[in-house]
Structure formats: structure tokens, C-alpha cells
Amino acid sequence: MNNDPGSPAIGILMLDTRFPRIPGDIGNPATFPFPVRYHRVPKASAERVVRQGARELLPAFVEGARALERDGVLAITTSCGFLARLQRELASAVTVPVFTSSLMLIPLVSRMLAPDKVVGILTIDSDSLTEKVLAAAGVSAGMPVVVAGLETEEEFHRAILEDRPAFDVDRSRAEHVRVASRLVADHPNAGAVVLECTNMPPYRADIQRVTGLPVFDIVHLVTLVHQALLP
Hints:
- The chain is of the alpha/beta class.
- The protein has helices at 46-50, 58-70, 87-93, 106-112, 131-136, 155-161, 169-186, 204-211, 218-229, and strands spanning 10-14, 36-40, 75-78, 98-99, 118-123, 145-149, 190-195, 215-216.
- It is 36% helix and 15% strand.
- The protein has 2 domains: 10-101 and 219-229, 3-Layer(aba) Sandwich (Rossmann fold), CATH 3.40.50; 102-217, Rossmann fold (3-Layer(aba) Sandwich).
- The protein has a 4-stranded parallel beta sheet.
- The chain is globular.
- The longest helix has 18 residues, at 169-186.
- 41% of the residues are buried.
- The chain starts with 9 loop residues before the first strand and ends with a helix.
- The chain contains 9 helices and 8 strands.
């Protein structure tokens, strides 16, 4: 194991996108207080991964994971929560740990809560977040979860899925606040929120503020794994 704290321990398989990666986004290296290594997967657009699935892109993601492993990373994640679909295949393709999605936090978060509480999931597209995607992340069919999606909004959803070169951060923040507020209004028994999308962590504090709930995301998971890998 490479225990050099100056060498990137976490490798990140990136979608092939151009939208801005603001601080807090997994694609912005300043998000983390430690170095990470990126590998862009050609032709892996957000639209193809979120809405169309990613099966035809599996060879490219496997190649990327193996390249990161050769570069010396100690664990691998991705820049899209919907890549949970490829969790088993990617974990089988390399010898280092793979955690494709923040959705893998849901079983842990669910067990933290009282039996009458549910886990709220905030996702970029609730129509695409099927039981099959959740199952691939380890979320069993009987696990109490509720979902709210940003597909009801315009700025953030379109910026990511249409891969726009610019977007309005303040409008995106307002959209996250609006959808998170609706989630807890519709489901007052929500005990925590998990952010599916790796582009949502910049708005975590706003979501915490309006919901009053613990909010978990991919940055937390990357940090946890990093601390497990290095002294």
C-alpha cells in the first residue's frame, strides 16, 4: 500500500463534461484538503449515464479504473451517483476498493435513524432513480426512503444534463432549497438527507439550513475513505 500522504490516494472517474465545477463539486480539486487524481472517461455524458444507463460505457469505465490503479491510487470513486449501476463490475475489475456513489451511504444512514424515520434522497432526476439503481448501491427494497428530484427545476438540471458551459449558481442554490423544502414538507418523517448527485455538495449547507436535518454526500464518503487509507 502506498502510504505517501502527498500522493493521491483517491482516484475519481470523471464524466466527459464541460459544465463548471464550482468549489464543493467533486470535479473541483479545491473541494478536498488532500490531492485526488482524475481520469476522464470519453463520451460519458451526464445524459447518457443518468437517463440512458451506462452499460455500453462499461469497457471505458473499466479501462479508466485500471488506469487509476496503475497510477497508484488506493481507492476509486466516480463523478455521478448513477454510476452505482456499475458498482459490481468496477469493483471486480480492480484490486483496490471502489465506491461509485453516495447512494451507498443510504443503508448506513437508514440504520442511524429511528424505525419511524425515512431517508430522503435528493437527486438530479427522480424518474431515472429506479429501484434497480438503488439496489446496485446496496439499498434493499424494504429500506424506507423517499425521493425528490431537481427535474422539476430548470437551471441546475439543464446545466448538468445538457452540459452547458455556464450556469447561475444562485438560481441553482434556490432550486435546491425549494426541492429540499418540498421533500421535508411532503415527508415530515424524514430523518436525514442523502445527496445522490456529486454536483450537489456546494449546496449542502443551504439544504441543512432549510431542512434542519443531517445531510450526507459524496464529499463525506470520499473523505471517510481517504482517512481509512492513510495515517
